[in-house]
UniProtKB/TrEMBL annotation:
Organism annotation: Rhizophora mucronata (Asiatic mangrove)
Name of the protein this chain belongs to: protein disulfide-isomerase
Family that this chain belongs to: Belongs to the protein disulfide isomerase family.
Enzyme class: isomerase
Reactions catalysed, as given in the entry: Catalyzes the rearrangement of -S-S- bonds in proteins
Pfam family for this entry, one: Thioredoxin
Length: 181
């Protein structure tokens, strides 16, 4: 009788550990969208900014990138608006035409797609989670910002970033063209 109770106890512990590991794995992977030839265009068209990893399951570099990419996806999913990370198994027969369309020559290849896929850019950033997050935040960020006060200008200048400043005065421009001989 004691051996049955002991066996039942160990079985429950083993089942609990297995479920915990399974839940942890699915939790870490739920933030990366899995795309293929059947849902790629539709999914990409719904996003102004999406990053797609083209990978092959046998590729060692892809296997090394996978946990970092998933961690970055988890972090970026909480951004406002969220940054979407996706992946495509480019080695799968049905997805090879898609890989060819995006000129995938090696694995892993990451592409940044903007405006529903109308603009495509190669990802040239780091391959660890924190670096991916920072790089994509900068890529997604506004290309320009309006500075409305001297305090805002001072704060931005203190960040040691490169700035290009443009100022315009519509009245002045109009007057110049109006007075032009």
């Amino acid at each position: 009788m004691a051996s049955r109770v002991s066996f039942g106890f160990y079985l429950c512990v083993l089942l609990s550990v297995t479920l915990a590991i399974s839940a942890e794995e699915s939790e870490s992977k739920e933030h990366v969208l899995t795309l293929d030839h059947s849902n790629f265009t539709d999914t990409v068209s719904k996003h102004d900014f999406i990053i797609v990893e083209f990978y092959a399951p046998w590729c060692g570099h892809c296997k090394n990138l996978a946990p970092q990419y998933e961690k970055a996806a988890s972090i970026l999913s909480s951004e406002d608006p969220p940054v979407v990370l996706a992946k495509v198994d480019a080695n799968e027969e049905n997805n090879r035409e898609l890989a060819s369309e995006y000129e995938i020559k090696g694995f892993p290849t990451l592409k940044i797609l903007r405006n529903g896929g109308k603009s495509v850019q190669d990802y040239k950033g780091p391959r660890e989670a924190d670096g991916i997050v920072e790089y994509l935040k900068k890529q997604r960020g506004p290309a320009s910002a309006e500075i409305k006060s001297a305090d805002e200008a001072s704060t931005l200048l203190g960040e040691n970033k490169v700035f290009i400043v443009s100022a315009s005065c519509p009245t002045f421009v109009f007057r110049c063209f109006y007075d032009f001989p």
